[in-house]
Each structure stands twice: as C-alpha cells, then as structure tokens.
Amino acid sequence: MTALSRAVVRFRYYIIAFWLIVAALAIPRAARVTDVLETGGQSLRSTEAQLTRDIILESFERPIVSFMAVVVTGPVPIDSQAYHLVLENLSAAALQEPYIDQVVSYLTRPDPGFVSDDRMTTFFIATVAEPYATNAGQVTPWLRDAMNRRAARTPGAEEYEILVTGGPALDFDSRAVTAEDARRGERRSLIPAGIVLVLAFGALAAAVLPIIIGMFAISCALAAVYVAAAFHGMSIFVLTIVTMVGLAVGIDYSLLIVTRFREEMNRGMGPKESAVRTLLTAGRAVITSGLTVIVGFASLLLTPLIETRSVGIGGMLVVTAAVLLSVTLLPAVLAIAGRSIDWPHWLARRLAWYHRPTAWERWARWLSHHPGRALVIGLAITGLLTWPLLHIEIGLPTSGWFPSGTESSIGATVIERTGSRGALLPVQITFRAPEGQRIVSSRYIGGLIRFSNSLLAEPRISSVRGPVNLGTGMSRLGLLSLYGNLERARDRYPEFFQSYIAPDGRTTLMDVTLADTTSLPGAMEVVKRVREMAAGDLRGLDLVEIHVGGFAAASLDLQEDLLKRFPTVIGLVLAITAAMLLVAFRSVLVPLKAVVMNSLSVLGAFGMLVLVFQDGIGSGILGLEGPTQAIHVVIPVLVFAVAFGLSMDYEVFLLSRMKEAFDRTHKNDLATMEGLSVTASVITSAAAIMIIVFGTFAFSRVLAAKMMGFGLAVAVLLDATLIRMVLVPAFMHIAGRWNWWPGVRIPAEPEGPV
To answer: What is the pTM for the complete model shown?
Structure first.
C-alpha cells in the first residue's frame, strides 16, 4: 500500500492523462449502451416454460409465441360501418408488415371477448413472425408507426384511439422507461447530493470532485457493460443498478478520500504528503469496503437468471471503477490542487457548525456509560421494523408491475376493462405423443377432452382453445371423424392447424385464457395446478409428454430457481465478507459482529418493503395505487446482495478509525468514542447522499426499480443511524478489548467506561 500511494503521487500527471484517454473511449460507448441491453428475465438453465416455447417454435408452421395487441376505441359502436372500415384498414396494414404473421380480430372471429360491454372498444391480435419472435420487442415501434400511417390515410380514423400493447410492447416500453428513469434519477440526484457535499466540505471545489468521480465511474462501467454484452446477455435493469450504485459509491468513496486529505492538510502536511497519508488510511478503507461490495455483486453470478447475473456484472464493474478512480485519479488531482480545493474559503467559515463534533462527542460519551441500554433499545427498534417480514409473500405483484403512463400499459388497462386481460398472457400447454404416433388419434382424443374439461372446471380459467375446443361444439365422435383424415381437416381449418397442430400430427397446443379476475399470483397458482394435473395419472395420456409455459409459468420457474439459490448466495456473502474483515482487522469478533449487524439492516429493509409495497401502508407516496400483495422474488435477492455490501462501507469506515485510535492509545473505550465522533459527520453525509440517490429511484415508473430504490434507501438509513451510530459502538464498548483479539493480549480486568 505504501508503494502504491507513493507511485500515485509521483506519477500523478500520467495517471490523469490515462484517465482522460479512458474517458474519451468510454463515454461514446456508454451513450449507446441501451442498444445492447435486453428486457425481461431469462433463465440460463432449461426451464419447463422455455422448453414449452421451444416446442411451439419448432413444431408449428405459424407458432403463436409472441404477439401484439392493437386496441381500438371509437366514437361509435363496433357494429357500425365506419368502425368496420377502420378496423379492416388497421388489420390489413398489420398483415402487410413482414414481421407480422397473422391477425385475429372480431371480424375474423366474432368472439365476444374481443369487444367491451359498451361495444366501443375492441382489439386485434397480431402474431409476430418466427424470425422476429426471439426479440419481438424490436417490432413495437415499427407496428406503431404502421398503425399511425394507415390511420392517417383512413377517413374518420382521427376520432379513434389506437394503442399497441402486448408482451413485446410492454417489454419495449419497459426498456425505454428504465433508460429514461435512470437519466432522470441521475439528474435529480445531483443537486441535492451536491448540497450535502457543500455542507460536508464547506467548499465548492471540494464538493465538485466526488460528483465528477461518481459520474465518471458510471460512464466507465456502462462502457464496460457495452463490451460485456457481446459475450453475455445484459438486462436493461443493469442500467438502473449501475446508475444508482455508481453515483452512490463514487461520491461516498470520494467523500472519504477528500475528507481525509483535508484533515491531513490541516495537520500541517503538504499536498503530496497528505495524498500519500490519505491513501495509506482512507484509501485502504475504500479498497476494503469496495471489495465487500464487489463480493455482494459477485454472489449474483450464482443465480441462474440473466437479469440477476447481469446486475452482478454491472455492479462489480461500477464499484471497481469507483474504487480505482478514488485511489488513483482523485489522489493525483488532490496532490496537484492542494489548498485550492478549499475554495471559496469564506464558505467554510459559514458552514463550520456542520462539522462541530460537540454533539457527536456527547453521544459517544453517553454510549460509553450506557452501552447495554443502547443495545437493548436498538435491537428492539430493529425487531419492530423487521416484524412485517414474517408474513412476506413471494410472487408476481397484483398491480403496478408494468410501467405506468406508457402506451402499452394504457392499452393493457383498456383490454382489462373489456374483460379479456387473460388473452394477453395465456397459459400454453403442449402435448407430444410418442414418436410415430398422432396426438389427435383415437388413442389420445379422449384424454385431451378430459384434460380440457378439467381445465374448464377451474374457476380461474375462462376458456381453452385447442384441438378439442374448436368452438363448433363437436362431440368426441365428431372430433374422431374430423381428425380421421388430417389432410381434409387441415383444409377445413388451415389457420388453426398452422398454429395448434404440428404437420406430423405428433404435437398439439392448448391456449388457456385466465379469467379477468385472476391476479398474476393467481395465474402462478393455476400453473402449479396444471403441472400437478400433467404429472398425475392421466387416463388416455399416459405416454404423452405434457409441458406448461407462458408468462406465468416462466415467472414461476424463475421464482423457484432463485429461491433455491438464495441460501447459497447468503451463505457465500456472509462467509467471504467475514473472512475479508478477519484479514483486514486481525480480529475474530469484529467480523462476526459486522455480519450480524449488517444482516439486521437488510432484514429491517425487507420488513419495510413488505409493509409499504405488499401491505400498501404509505404506498401512495411512491405513486402506487394500492398494495402489490406480493414481492417479486428478484427484489429480495438483489436488495440483499447490494445492501449488504453497501452497508459494509460504513462498518469499514467506522472500524478503520476505531482501529487507528486503538493502535495509538491501546484503550478500547477511548478508541470507540474517538472513532464514532470523528466519522459520524462523514458517515451521516455519505448516507444522506446514498439515500438521496436511492430514494430518487424509489419514484421510478418501473416497479422493480421502485422496490430496489426504496429497499436500498431504507437499508442505508437504518445502517447509518440505528446500526452504525447505536448498536455497533454499544457492542464495541461491551466487548472491550476482546474486539481486537487475537491481535492484542486480553487484560485480566475489563476496561471501564471513559
């Protein structure tokens, strides 16, 4: 560390030149990062939902896997000639597009489910062609443009509201909203964060440096993500994480470095000596802290989901960038700037009240006399905040899951009012007979009928479309007669066969439409029920492979995968973090205490997530219409991995100063008091900046980002106040010199309070 510190100061101009070159290379790529990010979460292992999708794509001539829904609301009922003209023109325009395979509307299939009760609103389904189905979101702007162009050429169409929605459109809008919210959150965070930095430093020049480092860290990380996307799928959610975490840790680490540099300058050292001393002390703490955060993100690489793995990669990249910038570029600049960072000097005098340690010294002294009382009160408050976690429900939220205010979400709401929400997210079931046999032969047709009837008996299912549900009221005998000659049946129902019965007759598909009253968690329960049916003893289908897919099935598979890996993620993070702190502080008790205390802040954040989002207490402040009734499984995994590492920042900052004081005085109580009073102002300022950054994202229009921002803000708030200012110093006082065992010899009598 000494060699590194001296090298940074000696080669300061070369280091600055190096980072300027990096900036020139990174910024253009960071600006284009959204072009390579993916929407949605995809498992890296072969799940049943993915297998179902693959079977559909491989088996059918015109597979219905990805489709758009075009919602049309007019000034007159759909039965009018004018409405028919508009609908015909829009349908024809969609069919002319090369990425649309087929169109199903009220005109081609007079299903009441296509029309609202007042008959003023309808929608038609535009199936995305197979070559575009793997990345269907890209066709959204094309289809919207095609609909607008045709509407502009259709007489009277200007009076109709036309909205493009569906799964691909929701994914596309999620991508756009996530990118926009990330930019907006970054802008909104800078001014309040800058105000906190001005208060913390009492100088404008010093306050600007951490913001520059934070922004630079984001640019470097996003450029690295741009490159990494060529080798590993990267989720759009990584944009939010990199922006949030990069701004937070970049500013925090810089705050610690600049604060220590000014402290050394005030002791009479020159700029170069102060920079070296800063790296030996605060720089060591930043590296240790950064490594603990990186461990949290690295644990996400154990998860089987592209979304969480890409967040882990993005998090590691941005924290690495922040650490490198904080211990190379920033000290190099400080060694050159010297006292110039205190400009303007009059401001420091005006803000001197912010740095007076009197209040913190009084608090530290009270804690030294009453550590047991502080520990009991702190644990009681933590337990109260964690209490709601006992009734957490993991699943798909019932509301607010899709980005609000977008064309796709508005269109989905309109379809929901028609009572056909289930048509957008059907449960898909494939049936595959043994090699050389036909699934619609007399051997299996009875089993298909019984399976379909069992589905229709489920109150959460409104309809089933498949080989035994042609809508013609055919009996079993009629179906056997129809499928006795497949070629004749194919000529009679060409569109149906292309989408529901494979050319070789071996595979068929059932589309299950859920009742409008079925929530997303309810849809996952339906998938579980259908899979239980498929795994049971099915008379007539005993040799048939049955697979269940669709949005709800994919969500269920994702949830089960992450819940299986979550204990491993937790164990790995706790073990590696404890081992790192054991090496850094040469103590057994300090790492164990740190792991327990950090876990308390994360558990408290989980409790508040349940209270606000799942139960809806105060959710209106964050822009939610009501309780979500469930927490998506990705959120606890991400909040734990990110918050545990970030909250360790303050543990390392605090313990580093306590260890410095203890090595100098060999008095635990005095070291605890000094460490607390000296770092309290820095920790409070750093936490305020993190809370501002994360809190800004709590008002995002994407529910996952909203939950993440809120959870991280609460975790940091609890950690910087209740945990770091109460529980940790109280425990340090109670443990006495045992805190530093085996690094020191334990006296026969415990040390008394100061």
So the answer is: 0.83
pLDDT at 142: 92
One-letter amino acid of 632: H
- Asked if 598 and 644 count as a contact pair (C-beta separation under 8 A), the reply is yes
Yes or no: say if 578 and 592 are a contact pair by the CB < 8 Å rule. Answer: yes
Region of 339 on the Ramachandran plot (φ > 0 left; ψ -120 to 50 alpha; else beta): alpha
Do 1-44+203-339 and 364-406+563-745+750-754 agree at the fold level?
Answer: yes
The H or E element spanning position 202 is none
- Of all helices (H) and strands (E), which one includes residue 572? helix 551-585
- Straight-line distance from the first to the last Cα atom of the chain, in angstroms, rounded to the nearest whole number: 34
3-state DSSP assignment of residue 405: coil
Closest CA to 432 of 517, 331, 549: 549
Fold of the domain built from segment(s) 1-44+203-339: Multidrug efflux transporter AcrB transmembrane fold (1.20.1640)
Q: Where are the domains of the chain?
A: 1-44+203-339, 66-170, 364-406+563-745+750-754, 434-543
Alpha-carbon span 273 to 37, nearest angstrom? 45
Q: Which residue has the tokens 């162009």?
A: 149
Tell which CATH classification among 1.10.3720.10, 3.40.640.10, 3.30.1330.30, 1.20.1640.10 matches the domain 364-406+563-745+750-754.
1.20.1640.10
- Angle 134-140-143 from CA coordinates, rounded to 5°: 115
The DSSP output letter for 86 is: H
Beta-bridged to residue 134, according to DSSP, are: none
- Residue 395: per-residue pLDDT: 84
User: From CA 494, how far away is CA 471, in angstroms rounded?
Assistant: 15
Return averaged pLDDT per consecutive 10 residues of the chain, 754 residues in all: 89 95 93 77 74 88 83 90 92 92 84 83 88 77 93 90 88 81 82 85 84 92 91 82 87 88 88 92 88 88 84 92 95 91 76 66 88 93 94 82 82 80 84 90 90 91 86 76 84 84 90 83 89 87 90 87 88 88 85 89 94 91 86 89 82 85 88 87 85 88 88 92 90 88 59 46
d(CA 666, CA 668): 6
Give 626-681 as a 3 state SS string: CCCCCECCHHHHHHHHHHHHHHHHHHHHHHHHHHHHHHHHCCHHHHHHHHHHHHHH
The partner residues of 587 in beta bridges, in order of sequence, read: 742
Q: Which amino acid is at 6?
A: R
Greatest CA separation found in the chain?
99
| Buried/exposed code over 327-360 (b: 16+ C-beta within 10 A; e: otherwise) | bbbbbbbbbebeeebbeeeebbeeeeebeeeeeb
Helix (H, G, I), strand (E, B) or coil at 466: coil
Place of tokens 């740190």: 594
Measured CA to CA, the distance from residue 44 to residue 347 in angstroms comes to: 55
749: Cβ contacts below 8 Å, ≥ 6 apart: none
Superfamily of segment(s) 66-170:
Multidrug efflux transporter AcrB pore domain (3.30.70.1430)
